[in-house]
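Friendly challenge for the regulars: who can give me the structure tokens for this chain first? No prize, just bragging rights.
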Amino acid sequence: MITFFTTAKPFKNQMKVIQVNAIRSWQMLTPSAEILLFGSGVGYVEAAKDLGITHVPEMDTSELGTPLVNSMIELAGKLGRYPVQVYINCDIILTGDFLLAIQCIKQSPYLMVGQRWDLDLNQQEINFQEKNWESDLKRQVNDTGTLHPPSGSDYFAYQGRIWDTLPRLAVGRPGFDNYLIYHCLKHGVPVIDASRIATVVHQKHDYSHVAGGAKGLWNGVEARSNYHFDYIITLVDADWMLSPQGDVQRNGRRKIDNILRTWLLLSTNGLWKILLRAALKIITVLKNAFPEKT
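First reply, four minutes later:
Bragging rights claimed.
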């Protein structure tokens, strides 16, 4: 049993097709899934009615009107019926192996994250009644999809009370996803990378919904306010990962400098911080002196 929650861009033109594709894919995972759509915008009421999902119009926003992820998390905890909850961006298509990945995790609490595949569907409306829709989608991913770098995360599946003391974070702006991973590492919550199991598809789109377009998205005031530290935590910093066989294992992608930077962020001991900074400088010097062969 899963509670998905999200917010959306206006349900019109390109984004209506993309967002309906995403939500219907979540519904295909399990008929009992609960879906909460937060916020108010063009087409929200009609989309919620057509899709049979719950619309929650009242929530906190930034000064510019952008929904705050911390507000959605708090409300989902109060309104959601199920112990497993998933914040997910509303342009993300999920396949059946996402549910399999969640079922592989037996511990609680936890945070499950993972990389996405970027795919241009050319505003194609997916027919989920076709029995081969998932295999057809994965074939397109293999043919023309691009694996997104581990710097960005588009879903956060979790169980347990793990989000106390979150700052205000504008959703959909750079940095909010990195902070959520940092928050869990800081508080000892296992962060599990499910990239090797779950095929997660991001439908490519433009950024006309943001003032200033892509430049406004990455360099705007909301993006700057989302960054709370110098070193950006990414999926590489997850301490655990799911193997293709579904076992929870230590994350083999982490290198020594990733580990040291994470320790530096989490440490409160002044002397320890000095030693970690010195170690990182030595590693940087060695990397420059002996670059990896490509």
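Residues 209-218 have pLDDT under 50 and may be disordered. The chain has two domains: 2-248, 255-289. Your move, everyone else.
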